[in-house]
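Figure 3 (text version): structure tokens given as input.
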């Protein structure tokens, strides 16, 4: 098996793991009443961009090799580093879902009996799920030796993050007030101690 094929296989396995983690939370979320919904076209554009850049574009590349014109030589070190980063991201993605439990939602929503979660990975950053997406995007760029596919993942993450995070934090401030403000004062957004 070539290094490039190994990178593609590892990306696909990571994508399957991501879906296996997410699916039960999506099912459970449908059964929990929504008390505040701030879903918007902007929110949906961010989600669509992330799914395109971190899901559809790399899946097409892995399945077909398109666009091969943007390929570059795959390196074993990059694939190993990409796999470590991608699977650490999947682990963090699972932890964030477990911490959120019934509070989790794919869009900007507050659930019935919603609680402010500040333990586990949320003790280090306010948005560890976005941290996991950033790690996945960088891992994708390292695993799949194609400039277009690598940039698509990073662009998809950036669109999701910059279109949503400010609105999400406003919603949390409106819901939790000074408790969320205090939480913001002691944590960074997605990179511990940095940003």
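Below: residues designed for each position.
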């Amino acid at each position: 098996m070539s290094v490039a094929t190994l990178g593609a296989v590892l990306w696909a396995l990571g994508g399957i793991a991501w879906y296996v983690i997410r699916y039960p939370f999506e099912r459970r979320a449908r059964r929990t009443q929504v008390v505040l919904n701030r879903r918007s076209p902007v929110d949906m554009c961010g989600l669509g961009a992330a799914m395109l850049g971190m899901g559809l574009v790399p899946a097409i590349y892995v399945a077909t090799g398109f666009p091969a014109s943007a390929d570059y030589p795959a390196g074993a070190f990059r694939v190993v580093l990409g796999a470590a980063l991608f699977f650490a991201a999947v682990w963090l993605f699972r932890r964030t879902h477990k911490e959120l439990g019934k509070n989790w939602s794919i869009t900007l929503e507050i659930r019935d009996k919603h609680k402010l979660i500040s333990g586990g990975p949320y003790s280090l950053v306010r948005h560890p799920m976005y941290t996991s997406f950033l790690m996945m995007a960088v891992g994708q760029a390292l695993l799949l030796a194609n400039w277009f596919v690598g940039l698509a993942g990073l662009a998809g993450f950036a669109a999701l993050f910059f279109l949503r995070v400010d609105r999400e934090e406003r919603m949390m401030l409106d819901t939790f007030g000074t408790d969320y403000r205090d939480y913001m004062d002691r944590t960074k957004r997605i990179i511990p101690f940095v940003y």
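Residues 127 and 147 are 27 Å apart (CA to CA).
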